[in-house]
């Protein structure tokens, strides 16, 4: 089924699109907000920029699908298969992901590491700045701030842009996040009881911001 056909049916007021086979389909930008998509197969589909907010997505197969910049706000996704999906810049705020399979999901795109010389310079500037502020006190404050500004600029060279998915208020109870690239995802007020998180998380979460090894 093509994007145009689905869009036309939705525009005519239809909301039941359950148990369809849309594997590999290009559905980028489609609007199906509030629709019933239970049991639908989206494996390998392109849903970039799609609006699936408030959709019923129980036991849906999204394996390997492109869900970048997709609106899944307040969607119901229990027991859904989202493994190997790209969810960069997606909005899952308030979504129900209880028992969902999120293995090897990419929530945040990788960023380049700071080069080794950058790490050495970073540490050197920190030490020099602290020393100047402690030894010369007041008049050195301006110089210290100037150095800190240069330092911030250096660090910015290595920091990722804020591409993390929004999972504020999402329900992740019992979800499997093994191997997921959490990066800069936002988890404020989320529920993660019983969820399987990547090895080393949340330590790994902070390393995603400071990967200088």
UniProtKB/TrEMBL annotation:
The UniProt record lists the keyword Transmembrane: yes
Keyword match Membrane: yes
Key words of the record: Membrane, Transmembrane, Transmembrane helix
Pfam families: Pentapeptide
Gene3D superfamilies found in the cross-reference section: E3 ubiquitin-protein ligase SopA
Transmembrane segments: 117-136, 142-159
SUPFAM superfamilies the record matches: Pentapeptide repeat-like
InterPro entries the record matches: 5peptide_repeat, Pentapeptide-BTB/POZ_domain
Superkingdom of source: Bacteria
Protein name: Putative endoribonuclease L-PSP
């Amino acid at each position: 089924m093509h994007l145009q056909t689905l869009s036309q049916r939705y525009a005519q007021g239809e909301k039941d699109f359950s148990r369809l086979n849309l594997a590999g389909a290009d559905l980028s930008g489609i609007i199906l907000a509030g629709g019933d998509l239970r049991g639908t197969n989206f494996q390998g589909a392109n849903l970039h920029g799609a609006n699936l907010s408030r959709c019923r997505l129980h036991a849906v197969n999204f394996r390997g699908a492109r869900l970048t910049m997709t609106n899944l706000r307040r969607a119901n996704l229990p027991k859904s298969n989202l493994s190997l999906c790209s969810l960069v810049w997606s909005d899952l705020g308030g979504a129900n992901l209880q028992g969902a399979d999120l293995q090897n999901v990419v929530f945040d795109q990788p960023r380049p590491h700071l080069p080794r010389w950058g790490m050495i310079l970073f540490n050197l500037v920190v030490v020099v700045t602290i020393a100047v502020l402690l030894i010369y006190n007041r008049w050195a404050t301006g110089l210290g701030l100037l150095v800190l500004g240069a330092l911030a600029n250096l660090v910015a060279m290595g920091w990722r842009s804020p591409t993390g998915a929004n999972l504020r208020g999402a329900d992740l109870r019992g979800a499997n996040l093994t191997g997921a690239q959490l990066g800069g995802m936002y988890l404020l007020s989320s529920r993660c009881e019983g969820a399987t998180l990547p090895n080393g998380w949340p330590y790994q979460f902070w390393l995603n911001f400071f990967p200088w090894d």
